[in-house]
Design a protein that fits this description.
binds zinc ion; Rossmann fold; alpha/beta; 14% strand; 10 helices; two-stranded antiparallel sheet; 2 domains; 4-stranded parallel sheet; 40% helix
Length: 243
């Protein structure tokens, strides 16, 4: 019975490659990626900014991160947002919540290949939280789903709901950088009774845009005694002019 349902569903909604969107051939339908993407996952490689992860040939920190002076010490992103724009939109807004495990799996793979020492370094992973109202509306927090899979694949400890969003803020996408910062002031808090003192915390989100959200979350963790915070995102917006 289940098989029939699956066959009918696949007839009307043939599975697509998670990254490039190509319709998968019948024999590939066990996979989530097409053979091309599978053979060469378009991860960010080469010289990258040590704080936001975007490509910057020949430099350690990009101009913007130098000016921002973020409180987190390091940052990495597995993909350029250009590559992940559609997959993230499907995942977050079209109810493809199960893509979270696949995308989290790709993040785990990236970390293992590119920053294996970060896995050793991390005492606990935390997800950038959504306000409960937004979480209820979406049905899940995308960063939470990513963390669960990364934790399962790498063995890093994930503490769900370590951070909470206590103020329902305006959507960041409608604001400029200064407004984003003001909008997020005091928006985050640590879960009651949570202990972060002396811990190395890896903060996870889906998109690094201006870094304002990651900045505020890191600030809360450091203020409460975390030894160091690093951030790890599924994607980074490389062209900031387009934000
Ligand atoms: Zn593909
Ligand atoms: Zn940067």
């Amino acid at each position: 019975m289940k098989d029939w349902k699956k066959i009918i569903r696949e007839f009307f909604f043939p599975p697509h490659c998670l990254i490039c969107g190509e319709v998968l051939a019948l024999e590939e339908r066990g996979e989530k990626l097409c053979p091309k993407c599978l053979a060469h996952i378009p991860f960010l490689t080469g010289d990258q900014c040590a704080q936001c992860g975007r490509t910057i040939p020949g430099k350690a920190t990009c101009h913007r991160c130098m000016l921002e002076d973020f409180p987190f010490s390091r940052g990495a992103a597995a993909f350029s947002y250009e590559v992940m724009r559609k997959p993230i939109a499907c995942f977050k807004f079209q109810g493809y919540r199960y893509d979270g495990a696949e995308l989290g799996g790709l993040m785990a793979r990236y970390l293992k290949e590119r920053f294996p020492d970060w896995i050793e370094w991390t005492d606990m992973m935390a997800a950038v939280p959504l306000h409960p109202r937004k979480r209820k509306k979406r049905g899940f927090n995308q960063a939470d789903l990513l963390c669960r899979k990364i934790s399962a694949e790498t063995g890093m400890v994930y503490v769900p709901d370590l951070l909470r969003r206590v103020i329902h803020t305006r959507p960041q996408s409608s604001l400029n950088a200064a407004q984003r910062r003001e909008n997020l002031k005091d928006a985050f808090a640590l879960a009651p009774g949570a202990q972060v003192e002396g811990r190395h915390i890896l903060l996870v989100d889906d998109i690094f845009t201006t870094g304002s959200t990651l900045r505020e979350c890191s600030r809360v963790l450091l203020r409460l005694g975390a030894a160091e915070v690093r951030v790890f995102c599924l994607s980074v917006v490389e062209d900031f002019q387009s934000v």
